[in-house]
C-alpha cells in the first residue's frame, strides 16, 4: 500500500523513498509528515532475468526525501513541500560503512552516525543530539539538484548560485548564473562532462570549469526544453535531446587565438597590474586589457607568451617562439618544472586517500616553506608562513629542519648548514616589525616549533643564530637583529607566551639566558638559580662564566660573597669559590661586601648563636689569607726594574 516518491540506482542496489499510509484515520499533520521510509534492496540481473533481494529499511519515520545516487553514496534532499524543520539539512548515506551524515553545508554543520542496528535507523533518534543546533539554522535554498560524475551533489539556489556538496558534507561554491535567479517554474538542467559543468537555464547553455569556477562559454539555444544524455567515453562532447532531435556540442577547439588563456597566464597579467599600479604616478586605473593592448610593458607579455606556449606544448619542444623568448624559456625551465610539480602535488593532495594525505601535505608544506625562504620576506609572505605554521605545525617543523639542514653532529652538538640568505630571512631583516596584526616574525615561529617538538634543541639553535649574527653584523650595529632586541630575549618571549608553566620551562629559561653569554643574562641566570636554591649549579655557572671577562668575574664573585655572608648554604663549595676571587679585590673590599650583606638580627648580638648559621672569621680566614699573601699588582708591574742589578737598565740593542 506504499507509494514510491523517489527512486535511484546505487551500484547493484535500488534505493527509494516511499510514503506509507497513516495508522489512524485522524492522525495530526505533524505525524503525517514523518510517514516516509528510505528503503533499499539488491538488484541482480542474470540470464534468467532480474532477481530482487530482500527489502532493508535504511531510515524510517522520516520526512519526504528525493534520493540521488553517486557511485558510492546516496544523497537525501528534502522535498520542497516537506516539514519546515527538516528542510534545514541534507542527509548523506554511505552504504559501505552503514553511516548517515547530517549536514547543513552553508552553516558548516556536519555530524555522522553509524547505524549498528535497525533500532538506530529511526529518523527522530538520529536527530536527537542535534535538534538544538539545527533549530536555529535557516532552511536550505534549493531550486534544482543533480549528481556530478565526480560523486558530488550539485545544488542550484533560487538566487542562481551553483554549489557542490561533497560526500563528506563540505560545500564549495562554483558559479553564479548570469541570468539572475531562475523563475519559479523554469527548470534548470545540470550535467557534468569530465571537468566541465553544463547548465541550461532559460534558453542559455553555460559551460563552466568545475575546478576553477570560470565560465568557458555561453551559448544561446533555440529551444528551452533540453535533456542531457549520457555519453560514456566522450567527455569532449555534450549530447542532449530536444523536441526536434538529438544534438552534439563539441568542447574541443582548434589551436587558435580564440582559445581561452590558462589561469596561470591570467594571473600573470593581474599580478603585473598590481605591480605597475603601485609604482605608477598616474591616477588612472590600469586594467588587464590596457596591459595587453598598450605594448608599454613587455615583461608580462613575454612571460605570458612563454607560459602559454609551454603549457600547451607540455612535453613537446619549444617551437614557434622568438629567439629572445626561447632563451628566456631555457632560463625559466627549472622554475616551470618546479611550478608544474607543485601543481601535480596539489592534485595528489586533493585526490589521495586519507592514509596518504599527511605525507603529501608534509611534502607540499616543505616546498612552500622553501619557496618563501628563497623569496622576498614581505608582510604577505610572513602572514602566509604564520598560517602554514598554525595549520600544519608538524609538517612546518619538518620543513624548517630540512630548509635549515639542522642535525646533531658526532659530539651531540646542533649544526646548521643553511645559506646566509636563508639565515637573514630567519632572523628577520631590518624592515621586519614584530607582532603586527598578530603576525609573528619567523624567528619566533621557529622557536615555538622547537618548544613544541624538540625543546632541548632551542638553546643550541639560539646559540647558532648568535654565531651567525656575530659574523654578519657588527656587535653594536643597529641594523642587525641584535641591534634592537637580543635574540635570547626574543626566544624568552616565546617561552613566556606558553599557557602552562612547568619546571622544564624554568630550566629552559636558564639555558636560554646562559647560552647568550651576555653579562646581564648570565647574572640574571645566577640570581634565578640562587632563588631556586640550586647551589651546586650556582657554583658550576660561576666557575664556567667567570673566565669570560674580568668585569663579569668581579660581578659574579661579589654576588656569591653577598650570599655567603647571609647563610651557610655555600660553605661546602668554598674551596671552589675562593679561587674565583678577582686579582684587584683587596681584603678591605671583601670585608665591606660582607658587612653590607650580613643579616639583620632583631636581638642583641651574642658571640655564639644557638642557631649556628652566623658567619665567623674562621670561615673568611682562608679567603683573606689568600688575598693578603697574593703579590700586589703594582709590585708585579715593577718587579723587573726593582730586581735589576744596575740602574739605569742597559740600553736595548737597536734593530736595523
From TrEMBL:
Pfam families, per database record: HPS6, HPS6_C
Location of the BLOC-2 complex member HPS6 N-terminal domain: 1-248
GO cellular component, one term: lysosomal membrane
BLOC-2 complex member HPS6 C-terminal domain ranges (all copies): 266-654
InterPro entries the record matches: BLOC-2_complex_Hps6_subunit, HPS6_C, HPS6_N
Biological process terms in GO annotation: lysosome localization; protein localization to membrane
Protein name in the entry: Hermansky-Pudlak syndrome 6 protein
Amino acid at each position: 500500500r506504499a507509494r514510491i516518491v523517489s527512486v535511484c540506482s546505487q551500484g547493484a542496489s535500488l534505493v527509494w523513498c516511499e510514503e506509507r499510509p497513516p495508522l489512524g484515520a485522524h492522525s495530526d499533520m505533524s505525524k503525517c509528515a514523518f510517514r516516509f521510509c528510505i528503503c533499499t534492496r539488491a538488484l541482480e540481473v542474470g540470464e534468467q532475468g532480474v532477481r530482487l533481494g530482500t527489502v532493508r529499511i535504511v531510515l524510517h519515520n522520516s520526512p519526504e526525501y528525493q534520493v540521488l545516487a553517486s557511485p558510492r553514496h546516496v544523497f537525501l534532499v528534502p522535498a520542497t513541500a516537506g516539514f519546515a524543520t527538516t528542510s534545514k539539512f541534507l542527509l548523506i548515506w554511505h552504504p559501505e560503512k552503514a553511516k548517515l551524515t547530517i549536514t547543513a553545508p552553508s552553516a558548516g554543520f556536519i555530524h555522522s552516525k553509524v547505524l549498528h542496528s535497525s533500532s538506530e535507523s529511526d529518523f527522530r533518534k538520529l536527530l536527537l543530539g542535534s535538534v538544538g543546533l539545527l533549530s536555529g539554522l535557516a532552511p536550505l535554498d534549493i531550486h534544482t539538484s543533480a549528481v556530478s560524475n565526480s560523486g558530488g551533489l550539485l545544488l542550484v539556489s533560487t538566487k542562481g548560485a551553483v554549489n557542490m556538496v561533497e560526500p563528506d558534507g563540505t560545500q564549495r561554491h562554483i558559479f553564479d548564473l548570469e541570468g539572475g535567479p531562475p523563475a519559479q517554474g523554469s527548470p534548470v538542467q545540470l550535467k557534468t562532462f569530465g571537468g566541465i559543468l553544463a547548465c541550461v537555464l532559460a534558453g542559455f547553455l553555460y559551460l563552466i570549469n568545475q575546478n576553477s569556477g570560470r565560465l568557458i562559454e555561453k551559448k544561446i539555444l533555440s529551444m528551452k526544453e533540453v535533456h542531457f544524455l549520457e555519453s560514456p567515453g566522450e567527455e569532449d562532447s555534450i549530447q542532449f535531446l530536444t523536441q526536434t532531435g538529438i544534438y552534439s556540442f563539441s568542447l574541443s577547439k582548434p589551436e587558435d587565438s580564440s582559445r581561452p588563456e590558462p589561469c596561470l597566464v591570467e594571473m600573470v597579467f593581474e599580478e603585473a597590474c598590481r605591480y605597475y599600479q603601485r609604482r605608477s604616478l598616474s591616477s588612472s586605473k590600469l586594467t588587464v586589457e590596457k596591459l595587453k593592448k598598450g605594448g608599454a610593458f613587455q615583461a608580462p607579455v613575454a612571460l605570458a607568451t612563454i607560459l602559454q606556449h609551454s603549457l600547451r606544448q607540455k612535453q613537446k619542444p619549444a617551437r614557434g617562439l622568438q629567439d629572445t623568448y626561447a632563451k628566456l624559456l631555457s632560463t625559466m625551465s627549472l622554475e616551470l618544472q618546479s611550478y608544474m610539480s607543485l601543481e601535480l602535488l596539489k592534485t595528489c593532495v586533493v585526490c589521495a586517500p586519507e592514509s596518504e594525505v599527511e605525507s603529501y601535505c608534509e611534502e607540499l608544506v616543505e616546498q612552500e616553506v622553501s619557496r618563501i625562504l628563497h623569496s622576498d620576506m614581505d608582510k604577505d609572505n610572513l602572514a602566509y608562513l604564520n598560517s602554514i605554521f598554525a595549520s600544519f605545525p608538524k609538517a612546518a617543523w619538518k620543513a624548517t629542519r630540512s630548509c635549515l639542514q639542522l642535525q646533531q653532529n658526532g659530539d651531540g652538538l646542533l649544526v646548521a648548514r643553511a645559506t646566509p640568505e636563508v639565515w637573514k630571512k630567519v632572523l628577520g631583516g631590518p624592515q621586519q616589525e614584530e607582532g603586527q596584526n598578530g603576525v609573528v616574525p619567523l624567528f619566533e615561529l621557529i622557536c615555538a616549533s622547537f618548544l613544541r617538538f624538540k625543546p632541548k634543541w632551542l638553546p643550541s639553535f639560539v646559540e647558532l643564530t648568535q654565531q651567525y649574527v656575530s659574523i654578519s653584523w657588527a656587535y653594536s650595529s643597529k641594523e642587525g637583529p641584535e641591534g634592537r632586541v637580543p635574540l635570547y630575549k626574543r626566544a624568552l618571549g616565546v617561552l613566556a607566551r606558553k599557557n602552562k608553566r612547568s619546571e622544564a620551562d624554568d630550566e629552559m629559561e636558564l639555558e636560554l639566558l646562559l647560552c647568550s653569554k651576555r653579562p646581564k643574562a648570565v647574572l640574571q641566570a645566577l640570581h634565578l638559580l640562587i632563588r631556586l636554591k640550586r647551589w651546586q649549579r650556582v657554583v658550576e655557572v660561576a666557575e664556567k662564566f667567570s673566565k669570560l671577562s674580568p668585569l663579569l668575574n668581579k660581578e659574579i664573585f661579589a654576588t656569591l660573597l653577598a650570599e655567603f655572608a647571609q647563610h651557610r648554604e655555600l660553605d661546602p663549595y668554598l674551596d671552589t669559590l675562593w679561587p674565583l676571587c678577582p686579582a684587584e679585590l683587596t681584603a678591605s673590599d671583601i670585608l665591606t661586601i660582607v658587612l653590607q650583606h650580613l643579616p639583620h638580627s632583631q636581638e642583641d648580638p651574642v658571640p655564639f648563636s644557638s642557631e649556628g648559621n652566623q658567619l665567623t672569621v674562621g670561615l673568611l680566614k682562608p679567603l683573606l689569607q689568600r688575598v693578603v699573601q697574593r703579590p700586589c699588582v703594582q709590585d708585579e708591574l715593577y718587579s723587573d726594574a726593582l730586581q735589576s742589578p744596575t740602574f739605569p737598565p742597559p740600553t736595548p740593542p737597536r734593530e736595523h
